[in-house]
Amino acid sequence: MVELAQVATKTKAWACYDCGKCTATCPISRIGGAYSPRRHVLATNLRQQEEVSRNGTVYACLTCSLCDQRCPAEVGYTQLVQKLRELSFREGTEPECPHGGALQSVMRMMAKGGLQQDRLNWLTDDLKTEPEKGEVFYWTGCTMYYDAFFSEFEAASLEGTKAAIRLMNKLGVAPVVSANERCCGHDLLWNGDRKNFEALARQNVKLVAESGAELLVISCAECLRTWKVDYAPLFDGKPPRMVHITEFLVEHLPELELQPNGRRRATFQDPCRLGRHLGIYDPPRKALTAVPGIELAEMSRSGPRAMCCAGGTWSNCDRFAKQIQVGRLREARATGAEVLVTACPKCQIHFRCAMKDPNLKGEIEIEMRDVAEVVAEGLSR
Asked: What backbone torsions phi and psi does residue 303 show, to the nearest 5 degrees?
């Protein structure tokens, strides 16, 4: 009860007007799901422990932050969900994780430490990197694991990782790419497992600090959010400057000397963590349109209004998530774009999975690329 009172204060749940805008905004609620953000806010304020932390309904939230954006009382519902999930996890409730919980198991293995990974066998001789020390550290995230786990979806998230390094090399930067990097812990944190999240965070913060890097460049929207927001209390001394790969590129566009590589119409999927969580909307678009021949066609809901890919923490794989993904892919197709570009490997994986539906393939199939891939195609050969 005391903890719920503290959570209500920290997230401003007590300020709720009971207007229902959060539930009316929620993508899950709008497509017919029984989930209601307002119900959890009310239950928190009434200290109803069973309602908020023991029945598992709090895991239905996509944490997309659309409701935060539209709440007139400025209730931090996404933060509330994170806190409620921690309470649920401590009481033994976990989300139903798809893929047998394999990814969560890998994260917890990494959190224990002492793990010898073979995570750099994708590095080729043409990609110039440093193994331990340098001014710029490039955070690769879990793309190498995702491509292995989701080969049946033709996942190719490592291509964005390689493209980012290729672009940095063009700018004369050979970033640190470490064999000792661990998962950032984003999914563990958002599924309530703070203990293992903090174990990962401490290892990663130490790794980057020991590299001497003053700049940390990150391609994955979730990793960037985790480093900038959730790692903040764990830094000892001044943290490195942290930027998304597109922010880095926009600072150096003239030096890239991008060349035409045919004409293509593209549309951009704003990842929730990059957009609504961090407020980064313009850099990906500026980087894309800096490539001669790329025409950007916006979806009807873009920027702050963009629809979520419906699977940020590997815990929302259900029929409602599928409906959201299919709707978003139809929206992308409606722009007339040839390629759907994003800045989050999970967006790619979830949309690629949805496109595997044999009954809908012709309606929703579209090429998917990471933003760095598209920009790297403009490099002179």
From this structure: 60, -135
Domain match, 121 and 241 both: yes
Strand 339-342 to 215-218 pairing:
unpaired
Series of mean pLDDT values for 10-residue runs along the chain (381 residues)? 84 92 93 86 89 79 94 95 92 78 89 87 96 97 92 90 98 97 96 95 96 97 97 92 98 95 93 97 98 96 95 80 95 97 94 92 93 94 62
Q: Which residues lie closer than 8 Å to 99 by C-beta, 6 or more apart?
A: 149, 314
Residues 140 and 50 both lie in one domain: no
Report residue 108: phi and psi, to 5°: -70, -30
Range of the domain at 222: 99-250
Residues 6+ apart with CB under 8 A from 111: 182, 185, 188, 196, 197, 199, 200, 203
Alpha carbons 204 and 254: distance in angstroms, whole number:
33
**What pTM value is reported for the model?**
0.95
Q: What is the dihedral of CA 108, 111, 115, 121, to 10 degrees?
A: 80
The shares of helix, strand and coil residues in the chain, as percent rounded to the nearest 5, are 50, 10, 40
DSSP string, 212-256: T-SEEEE--HHHHHIIIIISGGG-SSPPPEEEEHHHHHHTTHHHH
Determine the Cα–Cα distance for residues 27 and 248; give it in Å rounded to an integer.
32
Query: What is the DSSP secondary structure assignment for residue 343, as one 8-state letter?
Result: S
| CB 40, CB 84: distance < 8 Å | yes
User: What is the rounded CA–CA span in Å between residue 70 and residue 273?
Assistant: 17
Helix (H) or strand (E) holding 284: helix 282-289
Asked whether 211 and 137 are in contact (CB, 8 A), the reply is yes
CA distance 69 to 305: 9
The DSSP 8-state label assigned to residue 307 in this structure reads P
Please say which residue of 222, 250, 278 terminates a domain: 250
